[in-house]
């Protein structure tokens, strides 16, 4: 009796909205892959560029199109550029839809509250809202940490246990975004900066940021449960 627990079933609207954010993220990853393909090809050809640029301007694309290359090499690069430009147009279209979704009445206030947490931007806020849905299904912070995968992967053999980093059982999109937001938070929030510095005294930065991510998740949970903005702590 009472041994089985029901699973959370999102509404149809939530599933559809979630789909927009997921396809947006996939298109962004496709654009990154297109850029990496071009960078790799240029490097193979011995063609130098001005560093690992994150923003590709129209002038940079024009420069790629005017490089003096052999016939086959020119065709190869043109196809890579065409692939990138098509993906770029998809990014713009998907971004427009995400912006429209973020302005919907059902999300506008919730996004505003989550953005009060240093490090949380519009996309990250909308991702958490659509993926988590009912925050009250997570009774404790540990439950939410487990859902995201902010718990260790432990291997047991006989009387021995070995910690092997973070578990593979995770909501990878949320965990990835949360860690990205945590790196931003340690730059923007004095309290997080101080906590990160203390953590780094005993462990590596990559392990310390996981501890920061857990603190970030606690803030997100508080805002979503109480429907009030986050007030940063004053560091003396």
UniProtKB/TrEMBL annotation:
Name the Pfam families on file.
Answer: Transposase_20
Q: Which ranges form a coiled coil?
A: none
Task: Report the domain of life of the source organism.
Answer: Bacteria
Any one of the GO BP annotations: DNA transposition
GO molecular function per UniProt: DNA binding; transposase activity
Which residues are in the Transposase IS116/IS110/IS902 C-terminal domain?
A: 113-192
UniProt xrefs under InterPro entries: Transpos_IS110, Transposase_20
Q: What is this protein called?
A: Transposase IS116/IS110/IS902 family protein
């Amino acid at each position: 009796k009472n041994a089985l627990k029901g699973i959370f079933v999102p509404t149809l609207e939530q599933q559809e909205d979630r789909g927009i954010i997921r396809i947006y993220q996939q298109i962004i990853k496709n654009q990154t892959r297109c850029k990496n393909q071009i960078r790799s090809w240029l490097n193979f050809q011995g063609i130098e560029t001005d560093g690992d640029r994150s923003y590709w301007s129209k002038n940079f694309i024009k420069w790629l199109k005017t490089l003096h290359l052999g016939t086959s090499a020119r065709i190869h690069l043109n196809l890579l550029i065409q692939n990138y430009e098509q993906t770029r147009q998809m990014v713009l279209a998907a971004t427009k839809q995400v912006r429209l979704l973020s302005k919907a009445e059902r999300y506008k206030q919730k996004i505003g509250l989550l953005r009060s947490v240093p490090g949380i931007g519009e996309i990250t806020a909308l991702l958490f809202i659509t993926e988590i849905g009912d925050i009250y299904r997570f009774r404790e912070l540990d439950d939410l940490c487990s859902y995201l995968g902010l718990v260790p992967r432990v291997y047991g053999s006989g009387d021995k246990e070995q910690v092997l980093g973070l578990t593979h059982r995770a909501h990878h999109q949320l965990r990835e975004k949360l860690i990205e937001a945590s790196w931003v938070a340690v730059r923007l929030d004095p309290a997080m900066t101080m906590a990160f510095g203390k953590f780094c005294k005993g462990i590596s930065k990559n392990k310390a940021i996981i501890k920061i991510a857990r603190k970030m998740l606690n803030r997100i949970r508080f805002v979503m449960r109480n429907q009030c903005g986050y007030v940063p702590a004053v560091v003396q």
